[in-house]
Amino acid sequence: MSAIQNPAAAEQPALRSARLRQASAVLHDQLEHAVGAHAPFESRESYGRFLQMQYLFQSELKGLYNDPELNQLFPDLASRCRADAALADLNDLGLAVPAAVPGALIAPNRATALTWIRVSEGSKLGAAILIKRAEAMGLSETFGARHLAEPEGGRMRGWKAFNAIFDALPFTPTEEADADQAAVDAFSRLQILLQHTYSAHA
Ligand code: HEM
Prior knowledge:
Elements: H1 7-11, H2 16-37, H3 44-65, H4 68-73, H5 77-80, H6 83-92, H7 110-135, H8 155-168, H9 173-199
The chain binds protoporphyrin IX containing FE (HEM).
């Protein structure tokens, strides 16, 4: 039987990354709007809060980016982490390093961990736009906006390389479901961190 006779199969993208992209598109747009509503590139004060949000998310994922088993699957994984870059950005701008916010991801399974990392990696695509706006404020990939810098080898190449490995990993049906949930949870976490840094008094 051909898949065309099964509309549900036709709607489900074959690749895991494509499925996750489809599943989280609305959440991405909501996050993008939420970030935009705070106008982070219109004042250093607002940018600082956006940066604190980025730092918190990156630092929550730092352990996963440096996980030895995950680095066996993705040989460049540790070098993809931007927690240190975000920390250096905070230091550049003389901003406080925010305290950890309760509710960070704890001891995830492999599918969950990699899907959170994938959300973080995807944000490097949007960062191509964001760094231009940061540059207009006098920041750069060597001062204050290091975490938005283009990765060595290029944004799209790094993103495709990540997804090629991610898509080729065998997941059980349970792990596929974990990945779907993880994409939702990662975007929710970013919303929480965004609310936190914009409401906390620095
Ligand atoms: C920290 C917040 C953000 C996160 C976590 C994030 C995450 C992602 C992810 C996961 C993707 C890849 C989508 C997929 O294929 O599954 C993506 C792509 C993209 N994001 Fe974001 N994003 C963030 C903020 C933004 C913002 C503020 C903008 C607005 C400028 C933006 C613009 C884009 C663009 C233009 C793409 C590329 C779409 C494409 O060409 O496929 N992102 N982002």
